[in-house]
User: Which sequence fits this backbone?
């Protein structure tokens, strides 16, 4: 039986009530960003290290979020093109922001921003040895997920489709394999364009989803954040309740083999 | 192999004819494509696309917001020197122009840094004339490490350099290089570049290749609008970008579309472009390359910049002085004796940021960090 406790998500040493992770980019202003994130009930918020002024302890991007006790910051290494840059960025983030949590992003391809699997694995191995809680952003590659798990990743973050594309779960079949065989939490990241995409990811059994563009670029980010929150909750409840199987054929109420039960 | 090989197979007149022969049907087909090829880009910059400007603008706005969010990046140019050994008929720095020449000393550079930092800028564009003896590698070796300590992102718009020089400058903190071909029409290029190393069309054209091979993070390309037929030049810029994206796939790209501005010894533009046509060009670039940064400088008026920025622009300069030493004196706008060209948008940085906010967008001052610079 599912209880409220089992509905909680645990990654490394932290437990989350919300399975909706959000981001800080692309909003039209800081206040809208803070309002939307608070409305989403998100407890893990990723932010690009390259946007933060590491020399200023009161950076105004972070200021509205730091006031929320339930929000944990997840610095990301967006902009890093190889393992070396990502590791250095992670070290700076840990020092400046006093967190060892990290969304590892390495995308040398600036067009589709697709992650580099080789450099990501290399950086993950290095960073976990340095004590980081690493959540790597990756393509929906089941074998890579197993490698990352062995390298000590705290979760894996496979993409649904390219970052910011709003194309939804183009990698659905591979996400299902990942969810089935990966032992660490699976957070579907990138490409989730609508609440129905998020609900579907949760119905498939993803442990969480990360949504940024679809909320930040919406004409009404706060309302969209609430819509995503409700979709994630609905999808998770459906997954826990157990979805019925699907079939194109009607299931006859008097099956062909019913006579066997008559004796 | 370089873009020169591709370029030499492009016939200027054929490309021009291809653009002018595009029909409404070609435009509609381009507008419905999810990813545009080069021929579809030609349709969007053609005269036939003019009646479709509103549709192009709507799509451009939507693509820009989806890719870049509700943000606009701000940067400021820092003119290090107006010395120049070239004679270029359209440029205020041209050797023949009787203006006072100045190259910033290290003390003067410190003063400029302090003045710029006081306005909050983190992204800097270094500009010089082309005078390698004065502002060559030795000068850059002194300047870059000093600037690296103060700014998050450093771009350069200086004379083309060799690949090994770019590699060295990257190791000192250089992030991006802008190198505009001015015009891709070789005969006109030769007519307007009368003396100096800039007269070497091929070396300039291959600069982006040398940068790509050096592994630079960002390359800016473009054509100076006014020297030749703007549509054909834009088609060449698009072909150049297409080639670069496929060849140097790790590099980011930006495009600029500067219009000739009044300057010392000014020339009359050969090809005028109206505001409406410039909007068409900006939207066409956006539809062609949703991921490219599109940059608009203070050459344009405040009114034009404010209205066009939501449609596709991702990067803007603000409070620009086009003369060395221009920021130390806060009243620099009154002193224009050393400038490259006259700017049009004279607003202070906070006024530009306010204008960006009034369009429902966020002005971004920092979007890069030293840790990503080699």
Assistant:
């Amino acid at each position: 039986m599912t209880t409220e406790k089992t509905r909680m998500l645990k990654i490394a040493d932290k437990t989350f009530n919300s399975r909706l992770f959000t981001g800080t980019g692309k909003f039209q202003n800081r206040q809208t960003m803070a309002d939307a994130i608070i409305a989403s009930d998100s407890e893990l918020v990723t932010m690009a290290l390259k946007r933060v002024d590491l020399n200023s302890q009161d950076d105004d991007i972070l200021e509205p979020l730091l006031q929320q006790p339930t929000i944990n910051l997840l610095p990301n290494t967006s902009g890093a093109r190889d393992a070396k840059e990502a590791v250095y960025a992670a070290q700076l983030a840990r020092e400046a922001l006093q967190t060892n949590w990290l969304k590892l992003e390495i995308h040398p391809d600036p067009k589709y921003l697709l992650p580099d699997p080789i450099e990501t694995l290399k950086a993950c191995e290095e960073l976990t040895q340095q004590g980081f809680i690493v959540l790597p952003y990756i393509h929906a590659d089941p074998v890579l997920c197993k490698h990352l798990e062995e390298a000590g990743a705290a979760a894996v973050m496979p993409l649904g489709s390219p970052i910011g594309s709003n194309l939804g779960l183009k990698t659905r079949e591979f996400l299902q394999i990942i969810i089935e065989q990966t032992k660490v939490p699976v957070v579907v990241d990138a490409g989730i364009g609508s609440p129905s995409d998020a609900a579907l990811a949760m119905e498939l059994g993803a442990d969480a989803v990360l949504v940024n563009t679809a909320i930040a670029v919406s004409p009404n980010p706060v309302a969209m954040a609430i819509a995503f929150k409700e979709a994630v909750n609905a999808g998770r409840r459906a997954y826990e309740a157990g979805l019925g199987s699907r079939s194109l054929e009607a299931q006859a109420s008097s099956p062909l083999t019913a006579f066997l039960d008559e004796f | 192999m370089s873009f020169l090989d591709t370029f030499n197979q492009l016939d200027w007149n054929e490309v021009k004819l291809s653009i002018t022969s595009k029909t409404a049907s070609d435009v509609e087909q381009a507008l419905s494509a999810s990813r545009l090829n080069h021929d579809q880009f030609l349709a969007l910059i053609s005269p036939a696309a003019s009646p479709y400007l509103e549709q192009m603008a709507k799509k451009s706005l939507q693509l820009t917001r989806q890719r870049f969010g509700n943000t606009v990046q701000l940067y400021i140019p820092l003119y290090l020197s107006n010395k120049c050994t070239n004679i270029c008929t359209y440029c205020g720095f041209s050797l023949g122009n009787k203006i006072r020449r100045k190259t910033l000393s290290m003390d003067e550079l410190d003063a400029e840094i302090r003045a710029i930092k006081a306005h909050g800028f983190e992204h800097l564009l270094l500009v010089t004339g082309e005078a390698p003896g004065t502002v060559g590698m030795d000068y850059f070796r002194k300047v870059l490490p000093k600037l690296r300590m103060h700014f998050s992102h450093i771009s350069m718009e200086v004379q083309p350099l060799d690949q090994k020089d770019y590699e060295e400058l990257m190791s000192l903190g250089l992030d991006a290089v802008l190198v505009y071909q001015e015009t891709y029409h070789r005969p006109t290029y030769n007519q307007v570049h009368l003396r100096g190393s800039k007269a070497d069309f091929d070396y300039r054209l291959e600069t982006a290749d040398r940068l790509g091979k050096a592994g630079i993070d960002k390359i800016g390309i473009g054509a100076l609008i006014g020297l030749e037929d703007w549509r054909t030049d834009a088609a060449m810029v698009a072909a150049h970008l297409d080639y670069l994206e496929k060849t140097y796939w790790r590099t980011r790209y930006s495009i600029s579309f500067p219009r000739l501005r009044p300057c010392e010894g000014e020339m009359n533009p050969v090809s005028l472009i109206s505001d409406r046509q410039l909007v068409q060009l900006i939207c066409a670039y956006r539809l062609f390359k949703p991921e490219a940064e599109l940059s608009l400088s203070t050459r344009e008026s405040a009114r034009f910049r404010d209205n066009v920025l939501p449609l596709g622009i991702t990067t803007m300069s603000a409070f620009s002085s086009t003369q060395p030493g221009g920021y130390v004196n806060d009243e620099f706008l009154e002193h224009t004796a050393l400038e490259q060209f006259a700017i049009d948008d004279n607003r202070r940085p906070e006024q530009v940021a306010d204008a960006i906010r009034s369009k429902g967008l966020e002005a971004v001052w920092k979007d890069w960090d030293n840790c990503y610079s080699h």
Q: What stands out?
A: Chain A has one domain: 10-241. Strands of chain A lie at 9-11, 14-16, 20-23, 44-48, 72-76, 101-104, 133-138, 157-158, 187-189, 208-211. The CA atoms of residues 199 and 231 of chain A lie 5 Å apart. The first strand of chain A starts at residue 9 and ends at 11.
